[in-house]
Design goal:
- By secondary structure, the chain is an all-alpha fold.
- It has 2 domains: 84 residues, Rna Polymerase Sigma Factor, Chain: A; 67 residues, Winged helix-like DNA-binding domain superfamily/Winged helix DNA-binding domain (Arc Repressor Mutant, subunit A), CATH 1.10.10.10.
- Helix 1 runs antiparallel to helix 2.
- It starts with a helix and ends with a helix.
């Protein structure tokens, strides 16, 4: 098993991107990342080879908890600049990303995990604690919404 610092260096960007995608906030994403890696430090005996999946699952759970919290619901989001180099490998992805960001969180997270992180439907279902059918349905609805949004932009 990797040590915590090694896992941090390997997966910090993945955890951060997922948190930004889910929360729409750099500051909230940073808080989520900190919490996730603190939980990793407390964790005993992760299954070797499953560390990233565990981190993605904990990140998704932390984001959901944050978005459900009374404190978060009562605050106004700050206008903030995202470090887009961390989010896109090619500049043309920015337009698609902007459309993805308009999706509801439940659709946005499955799109992100499927297309950006490369997880299979079953793995996403495990990470989000939902059925594979729910993942497939959310992906289908998200694709339909994105298709309409992207048609309007062209």
């Amino acid at each position: 098993m990797h040590d915590v610092m090694e896992l941090f260096h390997l997966y910090k960007d993945d955890v951060y991107r997922l948190a930004v995608s889910y929360t729409h906030s750099v500051h909230d994403a940073e808080d989520v990342c900190q919490t996730v890696f603190l939980k990793l430090m407390e964790q005993n005996g992760l299954t070797p080879g499953k560390e990233k999946a565990w981190l993605m699952q904990v990140t998704a759970n932390q984001c959901r908890s944050l978005l459900r919290s009374v404190w978060w619901k009562r605050t106004e989001p700050l206008e903030e600049e995202l470090n887009e180099e961390l989010l896109f490998e090619q500049p043309e992805q920015k337009g698609v990303w902007e459309c993805i960001q308009k999706l509801k969180p439940k659709y946005r997270i499955v799109v992100y995990l499927f297309y950006y992180e490369g997880y299979a439907v079953r793995e996403i279902a495990d990470i989000l604690h939902i059925s594979g059918t729910a993942v497939t349905t959310r992906l289908s609805r998200a694709r339909r919404i994105l298709e309409e949004e992207l048609k309007e932009e062209v």
